Amino acid sequence: MIKRMVAVAALIPAMMGAASGVASAQPAPKATAAVVTLTYDASRAGQWAAAVTAGVQNWNSAVHNVHLQPVSSGARADYVYVATSGWPQTTLGPILPGGRGQVQLGQEAVAEGYDMTRIAAHETGHILGLLDDYSGPCSEIMSGHGPGTSCTNAKPNTAEAARVDSNYANRTAAAVPARYPVVVDVWSAPDLARSH
């Protein structure tokens, strides 16, 4: 009986992963990559405020290497959302901390019947470095106006999320470009938009 108690007592530290001269079967925890935090200012988004919040949440739920959050009061944001009367247009990223991106949320696309949250999420995709793919299905947020006004999907698919994660992998120390290109999304005229 005493021999059994000694044997059990010798096994307890090994089962708990404690140092007892016996190697633990647990793998060492993996180092996590640094997450790039981008700040945004939606104070000029007007009637788009709820759509911006939903679109940002959709991206934050889908990606791991970048996190979007509202800018602190008095600080300068990495990018801004602005309500405009024209067509949506956006700085093409990937925007990095210290960047100067802008999302113009154009009312003309809403007048054509497109969903505000889909537009906000699509334009945020440009900030994160994704290009348009108007021939894509509704399940692809970067298909933009391609699937028509009945498409209200505002969530990126797994391939889009993976591309954004790739854009921000190991990017914390990258230099910020002096100037980024701008993408103009003409949501009602696919022939014009293809020319970009």
Walk me through this protein's architecture.
By secondary structure, the chain is an alpha/beta fold. The chain has one domain: Collagenase (Catalytic Domain) (3-Layer(aba) Sandwich). It has six helices and six strands, in the order H-E-H-E-E-E-E-H-H-H-E-H. The protein starts with a helix and ends with a helix. InterPro entries: MetalloPept_cat_dom_sf, Peptidase_M7.
What spatial order of strands do you see in the largest sheet?
2-1-3-5-4-6
Shape: globular
Instruction: Give the structural class.
Output: alpha/beta
Quaternary arrangement of the chains shown?
Answer: single chain
Comma- or semicolon-separated keywords:
196 residues, 6 helices, zinc, Collagenase (Catalytic Domain), metalloprotease, calcium, protease
